[in-house]
Design brief:
about 525 residues; alpha/beta; Rossmann fold; six-stranded mixed sheet; four-stranded parallel sheet; 14 strands; binds FE-MO-S cluster; binds 3-hydroxy-3-carboxy-adipic acid
């Protein structure tokens, strides 16, 4: 991999090479290695990243079903966010609010750019209110909104007073940060400010938890919900797969927060702990063993004999089913080589599933994660805060003296004494093999070189990579939308994934792919780059 890295860098102008050098690490889990992450993509490079608006509106708020999410901007931005992320939802009854099949937009025109769009935004909010009578309305700013200076927050305040419903805005203009990641942070902040803690509801169960950073792609959250229900764990709210705004309002009454996607939601976990004293743990329900471990860790937190027995019984029963399928499939796919480049957590989480099948992950990376997602949270104090990060509001959170759970803080201290880990994420790099190649914000040129070098049996990424990779004769599994498949979480999900891997890997069809441009190039040319 060092040689491959050299070859990749050799093509770049010197300044670019210097930067990309730091974003590519030949992994050594035994030592502390630093990676360059969460910095601007170099202009001219074809990145896979999306924008801040995508991270805020599409990712974090997209899966909420009963908030009317209005996009303030040109229609293209709304169309982009319309049902593209496969986040499923299940309203309690047929008449319960579900706005996910809709897209709401102010459809800004040239005139609004010149004379301002606030009037049109107010009209859109009133119209949405009259038509749907929702519990909450949210406004998402696209690039032009920030450029012309429409004050979406002032509009939200005015509309909240006029209509008497919760209404709040997000300054999540596409260019606000270097990637989707900034949008996650902005979304976390506004959820914290405008929803969290607004409903002090009485207890609903003996063991109350929230699941943070699970967005129910392909029904993933449904699998987790079913297991919790069977075990007798009360899931108050999920941020934000299969969620309601109501459930987010009383989420602060939980005893424990579980963080699935660390990248997109660690901010809320931290803020809830500071304000309400709710501890958080990192969980992962992708991979049968990881799901079992996560369930057991929750049971251990509560330390209740009945709960522990139930969880143990569920795990034993489900693992028996999983093992039967795994043993049948593993010999067929063992030793195959895979690589995965996904936005954030999934490039790490899915390695557990591959490990269970004996598939080797030779290279992996995130589009937009931060150093802590690679190297572990221990590096957070050393992360340089640059101007792009400073541009994103970092909320000053204070302890709520009335509602702070001293009992939970005490429980945390006691369990930590016994070696139980809270507020911790060790990152992807310590989990990867020595000499695997870790790459942040991979681009097309690097992807092509990776394929030539490793000749992988499987490439995992998204829609932007899919067809290019397939034309190399390499199957591509989308780990964003699951290629219309899923769920892949928990035990049923693991079985589902193993079977999918067998279908994709145990076939010779991909070797027959012959891209037309390989036979007959349409354009032939050469290019010289001056350093
Ligand atoms: Fe978290 Fe996600 Fe991901 Fe993400 Fe995303 Fe996604 Fe993703 Mo696409 S929140 S970081 S911003 S796990 S949309 S559900 S699949 S890039 S790896
Ligand atoms: C996003 C959403 C995305 C895109 C997926 C892809 C998703 O980043 O705006 O590139 O295939 O999961 O839908 O990550």
């Amino acid at each position: 991999p060092s040689k491959l890295k050299e070859e990749i860098l050799a093509k770049y102008p010197r300044k670019v090479a210097r930067k990309r050098d730091k974003a590519m690490v030949v992994n050594d889990p035994g030592v502390d290695q630093e990676i360059l992450a969460n910095v601007r993509t170099i202009p001219g490079i074809i990145t896979q990243r999306g924008c801040t608006y995508a991270g805020c509106k599409g990712v974090v708020l997209g899966p909420t079903r009963d908030i009317v999410n209005i996009v303030h901007g040109p229609i293209g931005c709304s169309f982009y966010a319309w049902l593209t992320r496969r986040n499923q939802t299940r309203p309690a009854t047929e008449t319960d609010a579900n706005y996910i099949p809709y897209t709401f937009s102010t459809d800004m025109q040239d005139e609004n750019i010149v004379f301002g769009g606030e009037v049109k935004l107010k009209e859109a909010i009133r119209e949405a209110y009259e038509l749907f009578n929702p519990g909450a309305i949210a406004i998402f700013s696209t690039c032009p909104v920030g450029l012309i200076g429409d004050d979406v927050h002032a509009v939200a305040r005015e509309m909240k007073a006029e209509l008497g419903i919760n209404c709040f805005g997000f300054s999540c203009e596409g260019y606000r940060g270097v990637s989707q990641s900034a949008g996650h942070h902005i979304a976390n902040n506004q959820l914290y400010k405008h929803i969290l803690g607004t409903d002090d509801r009485a207890r609903m169960g003996k063991f109350q938890v929230n699941l943070l950073g699970e967005y129910n792609i392909g029904g993933d959250a449904f699998e987790i919900e079913a297991l919790f229900e069977e075990a007798g764990i009360t899931l108050l709210s999920t941020f934000s797969g299969n969620s309601t705004v109501e459930s987010m309002a009383y989420a602060h009454t939980a005893d424990l927060n579980m963080v699935m996607c660390h990248r997109s939601i660690n901010y809320i976990a931290e803020m809830m702990e500071t304000k309400f004293g709710i501890p958080w743990i990192k969980v992962n329900f992708v991979g049968a063993k990881s799901a079992a471990k996560s369930l057991k860790k929750i049971a251990e937190f509560f330390g209740d004999a009945e709960l522990t027995a139930k969880v143990d019984a569920i795990v034993a029963r489900e693992m028996a089913k999983v093992e039967a399928v795994r043993e049948a499939i593993k010999p067929k796919v063992e030793g195959k080589v895979a690589m995965m480049f996904v936005g954030g957590s999934r490039a790490h989480h899915y390695q557990d599933l591959f490990g269970e099948l004996g598939i080797q992950v030779v290279s992996a990376g995130y589009e937009f994660a931060h150093r802590d997602d690679y190297e572990g949270r221990k590096v957070i104090p050393n992360i340089k805060i640059d101007a792009d990060t400073r541009n994103i509001e970092d909320l000053d959170v204070e302890k709520d003296d009335v509602r702070f759970r001293n009992d939970l803080a005490a429980k945390k201290a006691e369990l930590m004494e016994a070696g139980y880990k809270f507020s911790d994420y060790e990152g992807m790099m310590p989990d990867m093999k020595k000499n695997s190649l870790v790459i942040d914000d991979v681009n097309h040129w690097e992807t092509e070189k990776l394929i030539e070098f490793y000749q992988p049996d499987l490439f995992c990424a998204g829609i932007k990579e899919k067809y290019v990779v397939q034309k190399y004769g390499v199957p591509l599994k989308q780990l964003h939308n699951y290629d219309y498949g899923g769920p892949y979480t928990c035990f049923e999900g693991a079985i589902n994934f193993y079977q999918e891997m067998q279908r994709m890997l145990d076939t010779k069809i991909w070797k027959l792919v012959d891209a037309p441009w390989k036979r007959e190039p349409e354009i032939v040319g050469s290019m010289t780059i001056e350093a």
